[in-house]
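Lay summary. Proteins are chains of building blocks that fold into shapes, and those shapes determine what they do. In this project we predict the shape from the chain. Here is one chain we studied, written as its sequence of building blocks.
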Amino acid sequence: MNSTKAVKEDFRRFVIEVEPRLSYALAAAYGVDIGRESTADALAYAWEHWDTVRSMSNPGGYLFRVGQSSARRYRRSGPLFPEVSNDRLPDIEPRLPAALGSLTDAQRTAVVLLYVLEWTEREAADLLGVDRSTVRRHRDRGLAKLRAALEVVKHA
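And here is the predicted shape, written in a compact code that computers can read:
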């Protein structure tokens, strides 16, 4: 295999490994549409800077940061998540999308990754490029805000 083919294959394998988690994390933080756009931008950046990106110890975490920067360009007013349709009731709390939208980006990302996508704290911390304690802090604060917004009482 010549070097150009080898580089393309190396990048293809990288995308297969990193893209799903990267897109989920960015969608959790910024909503589905902006998450999709910022994931594409981050992967385009990775291709353009592949020699540098592939030598990083945490390229997924770095690309999450690239995606965060990209997401700022796409920021729109309005809800991050679509309203719950009547055919999804009672499976989904109708106030949940607005409550998730009221969280900070970091809180929403931690809550969605850990509770919706069922990632471990380690997986979330690795991709986000932060310590597990940071993920836990954002998760705890986010859950407290969600409970208050949805009027959920936490039982001991």
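What the prediction tells us: The longest helix spans residues 3-30.
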